[in-house]
Design a protein that fits this description.
The protein is α+β, with helices and mostly antiparallel strands. It is 33% helix and 27% strand. The protein is built from 7 helices and 18 strands. The protein is globular and about 65 Å long.
Length: 304
């Protein structure tokens, strides 16, 4: 059965505003091949698909040859799914047809596009390119590059003012099994959901980042190792209790966490990353779904 069409209600619009919406609009690749590429939406239909004749070619097995079509009508810009095998998603909702609003995220296969419109589309585009240099396109949390640069700054500040600094690194237990059992789209959904959980729990001063694959990192300024361990245990318990599901199928998940503190023998950001990552490995070896926050074998268990 085809999914119910999701259509944004369009109220009466001034002609000048409508003209601007039609003329000055584009979609930008924010996750996938050709990151940052901009496609201007002109006064014609544009196809998205795997086929080489598509206006926007997404060369992935999960994408149909003529997967979706972007078009302009009197009410604005809309996207229509062309009965593709794996569906078209707008803001994580599977659609048949939907009008697009500024900032909407369009997912086709494993690629994500962002719809931009406004008075100065070039300015919006360049702002988006800058954002892409610091934010992970899939999870919308900070990327590895921003994380490493920020950790170096925080380490320097902590040394200068003799303040505590901790780092928490974690990854999803048996994530490959999740992908193999439920599919890569479910895996992407899990990564986004996981990022949301940690971001909502973190303080404003904390930096939550995707380190790579299913591994995440959180920079915790002004917190010592024990305080960071308690924070990590809170996150671990939240994930264990959270009900992850995708398209009606429940996905049981846990995470393993390694925590490290800035100490005398830690001289660089890389040293702190290695120490936290080594404890993450110990958490995996120790049975997963736990926090390791010290090298003392008697204390290397979850803080409960």
């Amino acid at each position: 059965m085809r999914d119910e069409t999701i259509v944004t209600v369009i109220h009466k619009v001034e002609d000048t505003g409508l003209h601007r919406q039609k003329k000055d609009a584009c979609i930008v690749v924010i996750y996938g091949a050709e990151l940052g590429r901009k496609y201007n939406i002109e006064n014609r239909e544009m196809t998205i698909g795997r086929g080489t004749t598509a206006d926007i070619c997404v060369s992935q097995d999960s994408v149909s040859r003529t997967h979706a079509t972007v078009m302009i009508d009197e009410a604005g810009v809309k996207i229509r799914d062309n009965e593709s095998t794996n569906g078209t998603y707008v803001n994580d909702h599977k659609i048949h047809e939907a009008y697009l609003k500024d900032g909407d995220l369009i997912k086709v296969g494993r690629s994500i596009f962002k719809f931009l419109t406004g008075d100065n589309i070039e300015s919006s585009y360049h702002e988006e390119i800058y954002r892409l240099s610091t934010v992970d396109g899939l999870t919308q949390i900070f990327n590895k590059r921003y994380f490493v640069e920020t950790l170096e700054r925080e380490l320097s500040r902590a040394r200068r003012y003799d303040r505590p600094l901790a780092l928490m690194m974690f990854d999803i237990d048996h994530f490959k099994r999740c992908n193999d059992t439920f599919g890569h789209r479910a895996g992407d959904h899990v990564l986004r959901h996981m990022a949301d959980i940690v971001r909502q729990r973190a303080r404003k001063v904390d930096v939550v980042a995707r380190y790579g694959g299913e591994e995440f990192a959180v920079i915790l300024p002004e917190i010592d190792e024990l305080g960071a361990a308690h924070f990590a245990e809170t996150v671990r318990a939240m994930v264990e209790q959270e009900e992850f599901s995708f398209e009606g199928r429940r996905i049981p998940l846990t995470i393993s966490i390694g925590v490290a503190e800035l100490e005398t023998e830690v001289t660089t950001a890389d040293d702190l990353i290695k120490r936290s990552d080594a404890r993450l490995y110990l958490a995996k070896q120790g049975g997963r779904n736990r926090v390791v926050w010290t090298d003392d074998p008697n204390l290397s268990v979850a803080v409960r």
